[in-house]
Amino acid sequence: MKNQMLLQVQPNSNRDQDSQTQNYFIDSTDRKAESTRIDNETFNTIQDASKQVIVHSVIAGGLAQDNTVSDFVTLTSQLPVGVQVVVWLNEHLGPIESEGKFFEEMRAYLDNKHRVTGIVRLPKRTDNTYGKDIATMLKRRLTFDEALKSDTFQLMSKQRIKIVQRSIYEQLAIAI
Predict the structure, then answer these.
(1) For 58, which of 4, 54, 151, 163 could close a Cys bridge (C-beta 3.0–4.6 Å)?
(2) Are 161 and 133 spatial neighbours (Cβ–Cβ below 8 Å)?
(3) How far is it, in rounded angstroms, from Cα 115 to Cα 57?
(4) How far apart are CA 171 and CA 176, in angstroms?
């Protein structure tokens, strides 16, 4: 599993809050595309346009952990000054820990803590309820709002989706 990174560009200040300065999200899971962005100084160009760049980097638990932690270290070392990182700790495939240390105690995080503006935790949830509901939502490529309005989900499924949404949104509000 590759480190699934997302690039977020948002206004640098309240004065930039017009229709031309919305948040933009660029999926950056392709390493070649990411390398091109770094080579072309894309992040610097965006910052020069008075935009704040926030990179979202996913650390997965289980067998993917070592690779995604390594990708996080590589990514943070290549980003220009001023680019912040939001780390998503996804425990769906297993806990995120190494040698008895949680992510925030690992050398990879401690060495790059100054780049991290926030952490979003995606804890492992019950597979046959939460897992099934979120998997269905993702398979159908629905946003949280679309899923909550959809006839696909029954009352308790919508409640579980709402719980996950609220948890993520509350963490993001703190992180960015």
Answers:
(1) 4
(2) yes
(3) 12
(4) 9
